């Protein structure tokens, strides 16, 4: 008789929970997953990555249609409402659910639809969604992969029909003429692109002094320029004092004395880890003030058999990293070699798209590393000219003496794909990581990938002249 009902019990079926489940099941463990929604996929598939990227894709199609002279006569009026675009975008969610459900079925992972909370460190109670009863399960190892949700300050009335967060904006049933986005992190910048692309007047309120300050300054400046060029009003270094809404509109009062009124406000300033309903007191765990759990490099919490992965452990809070954390954790539990999740690229689906990996110019300058820059503007590539996607740039940072590639920064069409070529070279050991790879390699022509060759030529021409 086994001591526990299952070997591994996972709470949450987002990317982190799913990858931990699949890796454990494939290693022959008896695995069960508890999901508080009626379908799998996590917030990633239902509220975060997937719907927002699908919405952005639909908006990009609209922009291409509106600006492409092949499709329309100049002066023709044409408009799609937000609910219509949203409905088209949301069509991807059931496809995602079907895809991910199959993974559980094929790998014989038992799924419980219900809300989990701890009874003790090996026992979890599940309030089943059908309301029939509570199920109690014991497990040798328990993984918390409960993700995060929008942070909601107590002084803002999120029940009001004009005030939204990144979950409820996916239910907005009208097209605003003017929207305020409070918070200019990744979510705020992505939604600024989406709404301005739909022709909505956008105010983007940033409580810092530049957009996405973790990016290379040149890329962050380019984002500010292009958002403004698309009609977004970006306001830096502003903090809200209060937000009032009534049937006529919503007004944001800023500490600086400014007042902005619009049809809707999207709050995108911060997230909280989903830990408050897990009854963590029962096992002596205490999350931090943002609801996140602290873990060691093996994703183990202070309780030996309880682990945590994904958004619930905080930074970098990405679906991409969550998948890898889940797999790394499963390997650690199984006593296999595992790789720490590091060197995660940034992929930001603004218009234009942004992606980067490695060091920024500021970081290299501060560290006194002698580096050179190679740039290729997309407007100077044949592919960029043919496709009309000529806004953008690839920028390579490399060591002046060794040619080692130190950073790849890209904005423009397909930046999030393009960056992976640089990532592959940067991850080569020793001299395998060298800018010369791009000079000694034949690229398909015409491609956006060719930008690597052009940027490498630009950079190495500079170093050979100096
Ligand atoms: C608008 C938006 C856009 C994003 N875009 C991107 C992007 O482009 N690229 C990217 O890499 N990342 C993106 N992210 C981040 C990404 O969605 C998250 O990092 C990812 O979903 C985290 O995965 P997770 O497995 O930790 O948890 P989640 O996906 O949050 O899933 C956790 C699951 O746990 C369940 N759960 C919670 N508590 C319980 C409980 N007590 N019992 C049972 N089940 C429970 C929840 O119902 C949920 O389904 C975006 C996020 C948002 C909000
Ligand atoms: N393309 C992508 O990769 C993508 C797209 C959208 C969102 N995301 C991820 O979703 C997460 C949320 O993005 P965001 O744009 O809202 O930025 P964010 O949550 O990282 O930060 C926005 C601001 O809110 C503050 N904040 C965060 N949590 C808080 C809390 N609980 N209480 C008070 N203040 C808090 C932060 O300090 C920051 O000033 C990020 O981790 C981001 O990486 C990724």
TrEMBL record:
UniProt-recorded Gene Ontology molecular function terms: dihydrolipoyl dehydrogenase (NADH) activity; flavin adenine dinucleotide binding; NAD(P)+ transhydrogenase (Si-specific) activity
Keywords assigned by UniProt, alphabetized: Cytoplasm, FAD, Flavoprotein, NAD, NADP, Nucleotide-binding, Oxidoreductase
Note accompanying the cofactor annotation: Binds 1 FAD per subunit.
Principal subcellular localisation of the protein: cytoplasm
Binding-site positions, FAD: 53, 146-148, 311
Cellular compartment(s): Cytoplasm
Domain of life, per lineage: Bacteria
Main function: Conversion of NADPH, generated by peripheral catabolic pathways, to NADH, which can enter the respiratory chain for energy generation.
Protein name, entry field: Soluble pyridine nucleotide transhydrogenase
Organism the protein comes from: Gilvimarinus xylanilyticus
């Amino acid at each position: 008789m086994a001591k526990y009902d299952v070997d591994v019990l996972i709470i949450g079926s987002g990317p982190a929970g799913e990858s931990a489940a699949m890796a454990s099941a494939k290693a022959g463990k008896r695995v069960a997953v508890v999901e508080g929604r009626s379908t799998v996929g996590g917030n990633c598939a239902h509220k975060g990555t997937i719907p927002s990227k699908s919405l952005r894709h639909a908006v990009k199609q609209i922009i291409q249609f509106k600006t492409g002279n092949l499709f329309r006569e100049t002066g023709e009026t044409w408009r799609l409402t937000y609910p219509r675009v949203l409905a088209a975008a949301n069509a991807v969610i059931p496809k995602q659910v079907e895809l991910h459900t199959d993974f559980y079925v094929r790998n014989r992972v038992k799924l419980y639809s219900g809300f989990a909370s701890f009874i003790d460190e090996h026992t979890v109670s599940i309030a089943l969604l059908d309301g029939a009863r509570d199920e109690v399960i014991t497990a040798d190892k328990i993984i918390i992969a409960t993700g995060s949700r929008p942070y909601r300050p107590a002084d803002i009335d999120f029940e009001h029909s004009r005030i939204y967060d990144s979950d409820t904006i996916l239910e907005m049933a009208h097209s605003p003429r003017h929207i305020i986005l409070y918070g200019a992190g990744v979510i705020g910048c992505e939604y600024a692109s989406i709404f301005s692309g739909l022709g909505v007047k956008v105010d983007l309120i940033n409580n810092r002094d530049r957009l996405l300050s973790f990016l290379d300054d040149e890329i962050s400046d380019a984002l500010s320029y292009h958002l403004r060029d698309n009609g977004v009003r970006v306001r830096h270094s502003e903090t809200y004092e209060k937000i009032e809404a009534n049937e006529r509109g919503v007004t944001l009062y800023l500490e600086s004395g400014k007042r902005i009124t619009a049809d809707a406000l999207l709050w995108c300033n911060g997230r909280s880890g989903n830990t408050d309903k897990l009854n963590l007191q029962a096992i002596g765990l205490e999350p931090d003030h943002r609801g996140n759990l602290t873990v060691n490099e093996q994703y183990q919490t202070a309780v030996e058999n309880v682990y945590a992965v994904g958004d619930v452990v905080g930074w970098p809070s990405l679906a991409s990293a969550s998948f890898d954390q889940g797999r790394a954790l499963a390997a650690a539990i199984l006593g296999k070699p595992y790789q720490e999740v590091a060197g995660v690229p940034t992929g930001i689906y603004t218009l234009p798209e942004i992606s980067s990996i490695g060091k920024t110019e500021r970081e290299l300058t501060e560290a006194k590393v002698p580096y050179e820059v190679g740039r290729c503007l997309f407007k100077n590539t044949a592919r960029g000219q043919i496709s009309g996607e000529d806004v953008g740039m690839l920028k390579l940072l490399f060591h002046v003496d060794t040619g080692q590639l130190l950073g790849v920064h890209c904005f423009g069409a397909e930046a999030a794909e393009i960056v992976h070529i640089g990532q592959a070279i940067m991850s080569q050991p020793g001299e395998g990581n060298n800018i010369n790879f791009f000079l000694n390699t034949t690229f398909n022509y015409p491609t956006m990938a060719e930008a690597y060759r052009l940027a490498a030529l630009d950079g190495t021409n500079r170093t050979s002249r100096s």
